[in-house]
Design brief:
- The complex is a heterodimer of chains A (about 425) and B (about 220).
- Chain A is of the alpha+beta class and about 425 residues long.
- Chain A is about 60% helix and about 15% strand.
- In chain A, the strands form two sheets. Chain A has a nine-stranded mixed sheet. In chain A, strands 2-9 form a two-stranded antiparallel ribbon.
- In chain A, helix 8 packs parallel to helix 12.
- Chain B is α/β, with parallel strands linked by helices.
- Chain B has a single domain, classed as P-loop containing nucleotide triphosphate hydrolases (Rossmann fold), CATH 3.40.50.300.
- Chain B contains seven helices and nine strands; from the N terminus they run βββαβαβαααβαβαββ.
- In chain B, the strands form two sheets. In chain B, strands 5-6-7-3-8-9 form a six-stranded mixed sheet.
- In chain B, helix 5 runs parallel beside helix 6.
- The longest helix of chain B is centred in the last third of the chain and has 16 residues.
- Chain B is globular, with a radius of gyration of 17 Å.
- The two termini of chain B are about 20 Å apart.
- The chains are: A alpha+beta (about 425), B alpha/beta (about 220).
Chain lengths: ~425, ~220
Amino acid sequence: MNVWRLVWREIGYRKGDFLLGVAAVLVAVGCLVGVMTLLRAHGGRVAELNAQKQQETAQLMALAQDDYRKMMKTMGYNVVILSSDEDLSEFWTDGFAKKLMSEELVSRLCKSEIATIQHVLPQLYEKIAWPERDNCSVILIGARGEVPHKHSNMKEPMLDPVEPGKLRVGYALARKLGIKAGDNVTLLGAPFTVSEVHEERGNTDDVSVWMHMAQAQELLKKPGQINAILALSCLCAKGDLELITKQLSAILPETQVIHRIPEALIRLDARFRMATLSQETIAKETEYHSRLGTEREAFASWLVPLAIVAATVWIGLLAWGNVRERRGEIGILRALGLRSRQILGVFLAKALLVGFAGAFVGYAGGLIAGMAWSAAEGVPVTAASAAGLFDWRLLMSVLVLAPLLACVASWLPALIAAQQDPAVILREE
Amino acid sequence: MIEVKNLCKTYTGRGNKVVALDNVSLAVRAGEFVAVQGPSGCGKTTLLLAVGALLMPTSGSVSVDGKDPYGLSAENRARFRGTTIGFVFQQFHLVPYLSVEENILAASLAGPVNGARERANALMAHFQLSGRARHVPAELSVGERQRVALARALLNQPKVVLADEPTGNLDGENAEIVLKHLAEFAQQGGSVLLVTHDARAARYASRRIVMDSGRMAD
């Protein structure tokens, strides 16, 4: 025979009292766990939405980058820097620039702080008759490859530079002259190997040949001279052509800037708009769940303390009733030699069991209620997310704190029981 | 075994003073069965509680088994009570949710008792309760309940048994059984102090004391 057996037997005898005590703890713990579960579910949803937002934005931006790159590869650079003397009517009519500028401008541009353009590519153009090919008209383009920009890391080049001694030939020209990759040809007296024949582009590129800049300058007798600087506006500029023009004019005042293929920018802008819309939609949903979470936190801030206080009072009253009901028992147990602290222990042990049982059932009930509540508020709980809602630390906390709370609530009645005078009880009983 | 000298107990409350014991002196030797008789309110139960280390006297001294229980700390007094004194009451005071066996073993809650279960079984056999071991008090007759209370009082092999009207709720036959067992305890060397109105007690008690108005009448 021991105190625990005594407590256990008494619980079995007064099941109603015990169940009422358990119910009080259950309600308090259930409120706490239910609200915590709900907040956790909303928090999880917000995190999920944020992750989704980041992923979707990244995907859209990657698509935009890719689109842009593809478009620019196909359609060319969208920023063209020409000499201020260049007649734009002729430029658009002929499809290439004629006025010369110093190659030094490229160095100046690339050493500047400008961040709104990238992929800087100087070029030298001249329409010539190809003497070794029946004076066929071609546009000779000298290209030195992209020049590294001071402001940012070197991007993957849009066009590979033409190596000295190599020649690239446009689609229509190659077809007309029967040229194919690997052929050895002579141009303006210099030997070249055709490294590549371009696919059809539907513009003057189809009747052009590309060679290394230095070789072109030498063959055309225009050392250190170029006609144009091609560049690509940065994605960050989002097509703000006015800004780019303004910045370039400040760095290279002896030039003029024109922009090509605006349709590419329109498509790009559409991508940005989609990304923005997607972000806004997700942001609204995130804000909704955050607001709901805040409202629930406010709700919990008074509900949970109220439930805990009510449970404490309720357990205290039950313990007090139990002490009164067991007065005779206390008297005889004292007469049998039980010390005050043993009597105290009998009542506190019962409170511990009430708290423990209430915490256990309350946690399970609160978890289920929280999930149901969450589902009702538009955050359905799946099997995978349910595992995330189970918080073993919260379970451990309530399994420790609820019995402690029950002991605190029962402390005063238990103390009164322990201090009762057995002589008075036995005389009165 | 029990020695009470010049014992006084005055209850105070609501401006009144009630003298329950007035200079009572008494000695009960080992093996002696003393019956204390007297009208209601004469101080019999107060005497019993004072001897039982449950009620601090206003003055005078109490010695049980050679020790003054009121000279001990509350904790030690409780332990002393559990090991030295057995109580039997008119209302039995059995714990309602414990079985017969558990009620008897409840006397071992105060501290470990060697062979408590074996002794409880022996007491149940002695008091013809073996067949009722698993029953709770509500399922017992009043005679059986009092025998359970008596068995519980004897579990710790006390030196003294204090009985307060143990036959008050019993029929003649059961009263005889209880008195017989108390006498048997005394014959085995224990001391019994019985407070009773029951005239039959005189036949079993080795000595009879009459109290009146808190004093020994003769």
